[in-house]
Specification:
Length: 387
């Protein structure tokens, strides 16, 4: 009998123990993969949303933290602390285009939907939207809505459909073509209508600014700060701040998953030590037949590595499946909106799969070192005489 066949036979001789030990490493690795894949998806979405924003500078209330900057990217509800006069002062600066936005929330069929109040004409040019169906706003204060492609699809909205916002029914005037970003999941209202419904007259949430000369971005930031007492961040600064938040959360989640893998490692140690005691006579017979200590050590290490390989492969599959299926049920907030807006909620990366499986095998092999050493150091007489 070859060493590989002997390893498989030894592992599967007690199927209950084999299954539960394998489940331990599988659950740990699946948790690790779930958080890793969703974290990769979050970073991908942040880069995409920053690019889709189309702004070089973002003007936000002074003292706003990274969470508010994250809210800008995902269209989450934000305070409306910027006045109309401040927007006018920003717009008056030559060499830039300032576009105000009012970010709020509503619910359709008891499901949260992002609402964005916009200046129709300037926002259309700024974003470069195209209509898939219906028509666009024709006035600044009409009581109608234009919806993103995914919102229209999710709630089966089309031109002429009615939506209720803050107790008032509005007709859907048009549906935008798919953009691939958060705009697809947003319901847009003319600024005056949004301000009236959300009782934020002459106030907006933030201002997106595009500069004519990128080389003068820092100078424009200073001009804006001189004109209004508001915070100004560049798209690069915002990207760095948001990635920092996501990175911290992602590392925390991965450490939690690592604890699960560590617990599974102790399960492997326990299983292999038990096998060492149960198979002392077998070890002695193998030694009597000429098996060296190195062969005994290798046999137990292969058994341990097999647990890691099987657990890693199954865990990767389960982890990716969970990250896909769990996405629609994640509570809606500024952080998880990025996951929900990414379609599947997971980024299947060959690198993630390979690293996770190798990590599983490495943990299992390390866990098997001590039991393998204990088995290899037995003398033939001691092993054979064991009762």
């Amino acid at each position: 009998m070859t060493l590989s066949k002997l390893v498989v036979k030894n592992i599967t001789r007690r199927r209950g123990r084999f299954v539960f030990t394998l489940l331990g490493i599988t659950i740990g690795i699946s948790s690790f993969v779930t958080f890793l894949s969703m974290g990769g998806s979050l970073k991908s979405e942040i880069y995409r949303e920053t690019a889709a924003l189309g702004a070089n500078l973002i003007v936000i209330p002074k003292g706003s933290c990274g969470y508010e900057q994250l809210s800008v990217l995902v269209g989450d509800e934000m305070p409306t602390n910027i006045t109309g006069d401040e927007v006018k002062k920003i717009s008056a600066i030559k060499g830039l285009t300032a576009v105000p936005f009012l970010s709020q929330k509503t619910a359709i069929n008891n499901k949260p939907v992002a609402v964005s109040g916009i200046e129709p004409s300037i926002t259309l040019n700024f974003k470069g939207w195209q209509l898939a169906r219906g028509s666009y706003f024709s006035s600044l204060d009409e009581a109608t809505a234009v919806v993103g492609a995914e919102t229209a699809k999710q709630f089966q909205l089309q031109p002429g459909s009615l939506v209720r916002i803050r107790g008032e029914q509005l007709a859907v005037k048009g549906v935008l073509k798919e953009t691939g970003g958060r705009d697809d999941f947003t319901l847009f209202l003319p600024m005056a209508t949004a301000q009236r419904l959300y009782k934020s007259i002459e106030r907006v949430s933030y201002v997106a600014v595009r500069v004519d000369d990128l080389a003068k971005t820092d100078a424009y930031m200073e001009k804006i700060k001189e004109s209004v007492s508001l915070g100004v961040v560049s798209d690069k600064q915002m990207l760095k701040s948001v990635l920092s938040i996501v990175g911290t959360v992602n590392i925390t989640l991965q450490l939690i998953a690592a604890v699960s893998v560590l617990a599974a490692a102790f399960g492997i140690i326990n299983t292999m030590l038990t096998a060492t005691y149960e198979r002392k006579r077998e070890i002695g017979i193998l030694q009597a037949l000429g098996a060296t200590r190195g062969k005994i050590f290798a046999m137990f290490m292969l058994e341990s590595g097999f647990y890691g390989l099987m657990g890693g492969v199954v865990g990767v599959g389960v982890g990716l499946l969970v990250s896909i299926l769990a996405t629609p049920y994640i509570s809606q907030n500024a952080f998880t909106s990025l996951v929900k807006g990414s379609g599947t909620g997971t980024m299947i990366d060959a690198g993630v799969i390979a690293v996770s499986i190798l990590f599983s095998v490495a943990v299992a092999v390390v866990a098997g070192v001590y039991p393998a050493w204990r088995a290899a150091r037995l003398t033939p007489v001691e092993a054979i005489s064991y009762e």
